[in-house]
Amino acid sequence: MAGYKGRILRVDLSRGTVSAEEFPERFQRELIGGSGWGARIMMDETDAGTDPLGPGNRLIFMAGPVTGTAVFCSGRHQVIARSPLTGAWGEASSGGFFGAMLKRTAFDGIVFQGQAAEPVYLYLENDQAELRPAGDLWGKDTYESDEAIRSQCRPGTLVSNIGVAGERLVRMAGIMSEGRTGRAAARSGLGAVMGSKRLKAVAVWGDQRPTVVAPRKLAEFNRSLLPGIQEQTKGLSQFGTGAGVERIESIGDLPIKNWKQGTWKEGAKKISGLTMIAELPTRHYRCHACPIGCGKDVQVPDGSYAGVDGRAPEYESLAALGAYCLVDDIRAICHANDLCNRYGLDTISTGGTIAFAMELFEHGLLDTGDTGGLELRWGDPQVLVTLVHQIAHGEGIGELLSLGSRGAARQLGGRALEYAMEVKGQELAAHDPRARSSLALAYATANRGACHLQGQSSVFESFATDPDMGIHHPLDPHTSEGKAELVAKSQAMGSMYDSLCMCRYLRPGIRQVVEWTNLVTGWDMDTAEFLTTGQRIYVLKRLFNVRCGLSRKDDTLPARIQSLGFPEAGSKGHVPHLGKMLGEYYQYQGWSEEGIPTRSTLERLGLHEYAGLGL
């Protein structure tokens, strides 16, 4: 049982009961943990008719076998449910220390079902759990709730909670951990699932450290890797994930003005992590067992947006709240980011939806009669801040925008869908497939929609190599050749990261991650089994989507990405050839031309119970 507690906590909110349940040992090596275990639970306990905001949906908090150990960057946890934003597979990952603290309890994870009659929060201390009233916390922001709950629990308790956005069932609501440190399980709208269950928060404390088979060898292995990791990531350590904004803009990878503008050199400089560090007071932050320290806290001590004191915006937030909307005021972006953290909003979907609304206004599809007199001008920082408030509270045009760009476009009808930059209902992350072709395929086939992390293939079109993946030199970013295999392997790798619950910023090779896994668990896994296991997990999530009615028709991109090139940008007018890559990808994965895994593929991967869903 090294690396595992072997139990999950079951919480029935309708009945107000908690119970412990052993998780079958065979699923450990087959599905690892994290989102792999979550996928199995979702497949077995929900069906095609499960309402994402109904009591039948499951909400799962899950750690992995390396979580809370000395393995570098192993403090993450996954949250899984059917997404109210996409209607399909929903998954979000969060760093910090909450996952490590969850792993110090008697459980590997928590599964919520049902719906509480009144607001509650769960307090878990080692193996003792109870539901506590949270009516007085309903309406409080995530910072206030965190502080109030910790005052009621054992010192050192860590809290994951929702703000007003989750309570109001905003479709892009996220789940925030650890108060002002602002660690977010942001994507897929899972904060709304939590709100629908009237679950305000999950608070955990434990002192039962996870077991490791070979702690001395693990320490030696870490020491051997540390100098290389620190050298490779020193830019992240100094300036955070926003350090690369200007470089990313220079190669055409930064989405600008709702993905329709190719360059923004001066704007990128103004919103970069380097500018933020130079102009504003900042502090460094490290997650559990992290040798990098990319996290930054920021203060805005003066000016129109004074008062910010918390998590600095990461690269994706700088892009979505800044470049997407042409807002180049770093203080306004910090303020909008802080509001998203307080309200519990996904910054990527929020920024993407605001940019969508600005373009609708530009084309006359929204006017001041729709917006209560607010002119949705590109680059206006006050419009950005006002819309964040309105989306969270459902005020004015914010009520419509709280559905996300696809939901709002469907209500508006007409040409509105042309300007919604989403896949499967989730707004695109802040990397442009016109700069790196594999991203087009990764976005189109990502189970949770428009995700660059589930298959982080683009690093192999920039600088990364991995001989165990057959990549001996960085690939040409502007060609489709070899990208089907690259994306499939990257998605398998990503599934293992999300099941082990590790941070991707380490960017080690497969061999190193396999070694960490074996040193913790005592297994003898090799790289081939590692990738096969990742593929099994990825396909299980794909089956969940197939059951929800998704197929090839949903593996697509906004027309703008597939047709509008930027000759003046670093991407040199390139547009990705999605159709060609998609056919090759299905063939490599062993899926039908409709994008459905075949029966033989499911049997090869050991998913015999689900073979009837294949073609």
Describe the protein.
- The protein has 615 residues and is of the alpha+beta class.
- Helix 12 (315-321) packs parallel to helix 14 (347-362).
Describe the structure in brief.
The chain is of the alpha+beta class. It has 25 helices and 17 strands.
Spell out the key features of this protein:
615 residues; six-stranded mixed beta sheet; 17 strands; 39% helix; 13% strand; globular
Radius of gyration (CA) equals 22 Å
The tally of helices reads 25
Low-confidence stretches: none
Strand order of the largest sheet: 2-1-6-3-4-5
Helix content: 25-40%
Distance between the termini: 36 Å
Assembly of the depicted chains: single chain
Query: Which geometry do the CA atoms define?
Result: globular
Largest sheet: 6 strands, mixed
Q: Summarize model confidence as the mean pLDDT.
A: 96
